[in-house]
Amino acid sequence: MMRCFILLVFFCITCVANVHGGTPVEVPDTMAERVKACIICHGAEDKVGRDAYYPRIAGKPQGYLFNQLRNFRDARRYYQPMAILLENMTDEYLLEIAQYFSALQLPYPAPEQIHMQPEEIKLAERLIYSGNPEKNIPACNACHGDILMGVEPAIPGLLGLSRAYITAQLGGWRNGGIMRGQTADCMSEIAQQLTDEEANAIAKWLASQFVSGKPSPFSVLSPELAHRCSQNILENGGAK
Amino acid sequence: MRHPTMIFMASSWICIALLWGCIVFAADTITDEPERSTGTQQVVHGAYLARVGNCMGCHTTKSGQPFAGGRRLSTSFGIFVTPNITPDKETGIGLWSEEDFWQALHQGKSRDGRLLYPAFPYTEYTKVTRQDANAIFAYLQSLPPVSQSNPPNDIFFPYNFRPLLAIWRALYFKAGVYQLDQSQSEAWNRGAYLVRGLGHCNACHTTRNVLGAGQDDALTGGQIMGMNWYAPSLSSQLEAGVGDWTIEEIVTLLKTGITKRAVASGPMATVIRQSLQYVSQEDIHAMAVYLKSLTENESGNAPGVSFSVMSGSLRRHLDLGGQLYEKYCQTCHGVDGKGMPGIYPALAGNRSVTMKSPLNAIRSVLNGGYPPTTAENPRPYGMPPFQQILRNEEAALVVSYIRNAWGNRGSLVTAVDVDRSKGGGY
What we know:
The structure holds 2 protein chains of 2 kinds.
Chain A: H1 2-21, H2 31-34, H3 36-42, H4 62-73, H5 80-86, H6 91-103, H7 118-129, H8 140-144, H9 163-174, H10 186-193, H11 196-207, H12 223-228, H13 230-233
Chain B: H1 2-32, H2 39-52, H3 55-59, E1 72-75, E2 78-81, H4 98-107, H5 122-125, H6 130-142, E3 154-155, H7 165-172, H8 186-198, E4 222-223, E5 230-231, H9 247-256, H10 266-274, H11 281-293, H12 312-333, H13 351-354, H14 359-367, H15 392-402, H16 415-420
Antiparallel strand pairs in B: 1-2, 2-3, 4-5
């Protein structure tokens, strides 16, 4: 009787051992492992791959990333590949993913080599650092941080992104907004005021800058601009 | 000698304690039963039933107000827009009576007597009891009214001529509450009631004919209408039949979306997230008992390629897929296709990979995805989308390979199959 019992215990142990022994795949219990599905497009090594469109997300403000994850999931920002991946995720998990990428430090790729005419550079720099008060266009760095690396917690940086991506986003904002169903979107209003020439100059200029530094603190934002962009800045990003 | 005895004694005590726990738990759930009729309890019970029936799955848009409708369901007959079922008097069902609601659920007729399109699964809901229907109605009426007018349906001619529904109903609809099968256990009957009635599993897991009618309620699988997904047969051992699974394993899949041998993906992952993870232990157990009993007569021979007669060119073709597998898939799914059970699914012996329709396997490769985030699996691991990396021909090669490696047998997939799988909702 006792021998049978000991054999049974031994059998159970070997069964368990077999289940684990048969699989050579090692799966670390980390966020890095859990977000493998993301880094196929957003990883450091794929930046210069077949498609340079995908934006860098490492080091962006946490609130910005969290808002975008929810916007994609809830169809406020439309991009089907993202919507499919996020469809069945809770806010808690999305926040954890946002925290992970926000804290992730990756070296920045070399800036794109883009030829610009001197007057084009002047135009871009004027809009970026001074804006155009006549058309109610604020300076880019008034909201996106003095060094254009974003503002905590929810305004994205503009450097380290490809020209194709920036151009596409400005176009998206101009055509009714990237975030659907959100009214009084500050970036929509601004993008609609920009001419093609201005939008192109900004995209070229931003993509060709060297990148360094971190997002600025929220206190750098003027109360007026914080109010104007409140839809985007709000902690809940327009979510209910 | 003494040591194992003590282990044995201790484990006996644990068993007794567990049994006692189960008895107490069972006693609790039984004593809860008869008090459903009072107002608040009816609403609470109705809320639970609305979860089980996943009403919000269709009657809520992404980021929309719960139960306010407006979700567009694309079908081969046109686009159906789900109605607002909050108790708003103008735009919802605020003026409806209990009787009106019963007529909709049980007879497929609206308050004004109009026949409803079976995009609303009254073909299944008709099996729901009057008591349960009343509870769901009480719950819906207890919600905050939302004033939201939704756009009208956009249905193609001639289907937009509503009186034709009378013919359809004569052919394919029979009203009737679920009838107990006395030869089966209580759990089986409860499971059948939930699976075939309120849970309306057959809305997806059936092959629909040209008029959109499901075959019967045998859950033998089919292409989901308006979605580019294949809902596998729940009775076939070659697809998603669970006849040889343990009850615990079936329960785990339905509650968490993942087991050692299967992962829920696509629309099923959404159903688990929205509905099944909240189903009570007793009810999910009953559903598992019923699902386990479903069997189909089948030859047992999987379709596909037999290696013994495989030509040299075919072998080379699959080798190309094998190279892609090694490059992109092997890190997670392993050289032997065994994956990491419970995290990365095994592909060897995986019926989602080998079943007759390769659609779901192709879609998983192209779109990737995560199992649902559930209470039991709050931080799932996921699969990257390869659409951005693999061309159609390459995706076809890799899917063909996994359908025929490690003893798997499945038909080869072409670039055309891959291209076709790209359209449609997700």
